[in-house]
Amino acid sequence: MSEISVFSISMQNILITGGTGLVGQVLTSALLEEGFKVSYLSRKEQNIPNVKTYTWDVRKQNIDTQAIRQADAIIHLAGAGVADERWSDARKQEILKSRTESTALLAKALKANEHTVKAFISASAIGYYGLDTGATLLHEDAPAGNDFLAEVTKSWENSIEEVSNLGIRTAKLRIGIVLSEKGGALPKIMQPVKFGAGAALGSGEQYMSWIHIEDLARMFLFALQSTDIQGAYNAVGPQPLSNAALTQAIAKTLGRPLFLPNVPTFALKLMLGEMAAMVTGGNKVSSQKIEKAGFQFKFTEIKTALENLIG
């Protein structure tokens, strides 16, 4: 990832929240490879080589302020997984509060302590635009949706403004469907395909704006190192494709047949409840803004991305 090092920065100590998650692990390796010092904010002590852990308790709004005082930049990834459990009322509150209250705690600590934090790079999500926006190509200035995940993401981004109001450069990466062989959507789609039981979901026509996990980690580094990056950017690859096309591409990469009819929407609703809208709907999201800012994708086509991950 050394090609990104051309940016002139004075930041050395990077504090990550949610660092033990899927994206955080890849990003940590990338940062260490680039020569940064990495520390985590975590609910409990972590034994990770070359990474110092500080603790916080978001529910109690407690934080080890030394984490803030030693940081030159913060990458904020923390948040309860939206697809980990069915959306009960309690789970919905957890999804929302894990994002807004964690950001509020960071803003509070930044305001109350002397620090040298120059940049705050936060995860966000393309859920901002709504669960199903059809074939309309969405840029960052598109309006927010009004469903559950859109409301969560709007509140999440609003909470990030509390940091921006402190005079800290703040960027929000609206993350799409992250492709990784170690977790997320890809293994869940792969599993039935491997056994000859793969099928497109719902209509199969819904768009899936995907990004290779390595490109996502590189994008966080790019946002960290480029002082021109501020505000919202779509963290998706340049070639979104339909659910059916993605499923077909996975089957082809695995060398497996794909002959079953689409899984009907009503069956998905029975299995997943309200959360089914995450897979029956979709978004066609543009990566043009981040590319115009100078970011170059390593994986622009689904074929090369899948060959790299599972080929």
Description:
- The chain has helices at residues 22-33, 66-69, 89-112, 148-164, 185-194, 213-225, 243-254, 265-272, 277-280, 288-292, 302-310, and strands at 13-17, 37-42, 51-57, 62-63, 73-76, 119-125, 137-138, 169-175, 177-180, 183-184, 207-208, 210-212, 231-235, 241-242, 284-285.
- It has an eight-stranded mixed β-sheet with strand order 4-3-2-1-5-6-8-13, sandwiched between helices. A three-stranded mixed β-sheet has the order 10-9-12. It has a two-stranded parallel ribbon with strand order 7-15.
- The relative contact order is 0.14.
- The protein has eleven helices and 15 strands.
- The chain has 311 residues and is an alpha/beta fold.
- It has one domain: 3-Layer(aba) Sandwich (Rossmann fold), CATH 3.40.50.
Write the layout of secondary structure elements.
Blueprint: E1 13-17, H1 22-33, E2 37-42, E3 51-57, E4 62-63, H2 66-69, E5 73-76, H3 89-112, E6 119-125, E7 137-138, H4 148-164, E8 169-175, E9 177-180, E10 183-184, H5 185-194, E11 207-208, E12 210-212, H6 213-225, E13 231-235, E14 241-242, H7 243-254, H8 265-272, H9 277-280, E15 284-285, H10 288-292, H11 302-310
Parallel strand pairs: 1-2, 1-5, 2-3, 5-6, 6-8, 7-15, 8-13, 9-12
Antiparallel strand pairs: 3-4, 9-10, 11-14
Helix pairs in contact: 1-6, 3-4, 5-7, 7-11
